[in-house]
Design brief:
alpha+beta, 5 strands, single chain
């Protein structure tokens, strides 16, 4: 996959939820039509790629460390994420990631549902993420 250069232009969306599934390593195994529409990628471009293909560079590493620690323990994680579209624009989503378990209780995959984030939630997340990026830069 080519590296996408971010541009400072927000892509706003409404409507149906963005849904995706990944394997235990974060490789996309399912992407609904809305995910393709919002991300700007085709289903063929997404399936088999790491989910971080849409990670915006403004996202602090700590946010994803917390997410992975939570879902690997079998717990649901929710938070705000700034994603990067194929065209370089960004979009904010309220994300919920659920570990999917088989009949033995073993986690087999992760399912994510996302919707557009409110302006208030975005402002709060931007302040938190700016602080986390500063802490990361200092260490």
């Amino acid at each position: 996959m080519q590296v996408v250069e971010p541009i400072d232009e927000e892509f706003k969306f409404e409507g149906r939820a963005i849904v995706s599934e990944t394997d235990l390593n974060g490789i996309i195994t399912f992407a609904n039509r809305k995910f393709c529409e919002i991300s700007g990628y085709t289903k063929e471009e997404l399936i088999g790629q790491p989910h971080n293909i849409i990670r915006h560079p403004d996202m602090p590493k700590k946010a994803f460390e917390t997410m992975w620690n939570t879902i690997k323990q079998g717990n649901v994680w929710s938070g705000l994420v700034k994603n990067l579209r194929k065209d370089g624009r960004y979009y904010w989503v309220e994300t919920t990631i659920t570990p999917i378990q088989d009949e033995t209780g073993a986690i087999t995959k992760y399912a994510a549902a996302r919707k557009g984030a409110s302006e208030t939630a975005i402002e709060e997340a931007e302040a938190l993420y700016e602080r986390l990026r500063s802490e990361e830069a200092e260490s």
